[in-house]
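Support request from a user on the community tier.

User writes: "When I paste my structure tokens into the form, the page sometimes reloads and wipes my input. The last time it worked, I copied everything first. Here is what I submitted, just in case something in the input itself triggers the reload:"
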């Protein structure tokens, strides 16, 4: 599928598992709709996000240094980043238990379990970024590293 210049969405993918971020980055970038930057150090997330100004942040929940939930709060409290949507990714919730879709927490946070169902992730990225739905013919999953 051809993409118009400048049509890509910028994603900041945050997870301490480098193998997982590499695999998910490859899957998200394969059709040219997304440009994905990875950050594997939770202590650098805010600096990286301020520098990149991503359209959306995909954020692991359990990480050494700073937990994803705490980072999400810091992002929402930051004047430069507070309007940036965040999707939380976690191995503590198995997406097979939720029918392959995300859970919405009481605070309205989108939570997607690992292994990540790419159809669900694409749909949530597009919904939160205000874009068109992105569908795949086959359901795909990306497992944590």
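"...and here is what came back when it finally went through:"
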């Amino acid at each position: 599928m051809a993409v118009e210049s400048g049509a890509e969405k910028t994603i900041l993918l945050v997870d301490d598992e480098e193998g997982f971020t590499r695999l998910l980055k490859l899957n998200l970038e394969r059709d040219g709709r997304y440009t994905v930057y990875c950050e594997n150090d939770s202590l650098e997330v805010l600096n990286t996000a301020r520098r990149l100004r991503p359209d959306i942040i995909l954020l692991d929940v359990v990480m050494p240094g700073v937990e994803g939930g705490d980072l999400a709060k810091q992002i929402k409290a930051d004047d430069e980043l507070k309007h940036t949507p965040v999707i939380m990714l976690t191995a503590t919730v198995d997406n097979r238990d939720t029918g392959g879709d995300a859970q919405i927490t009481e605070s309205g946070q989108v939570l997607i379990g690992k292994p990540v169902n790419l159809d669900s992730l694409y749909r949530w990225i597009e919904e939160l970024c205000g874009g068109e739905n992105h569908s795949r013919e086959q359901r795909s999953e990306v497992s944590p590293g």
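Agent notes: The reload is a front-end session timeout and is unrelated to the input. The mean pLDDT is 82. The two ends are 29 Å apart (CA to CA). Escalated to web team.
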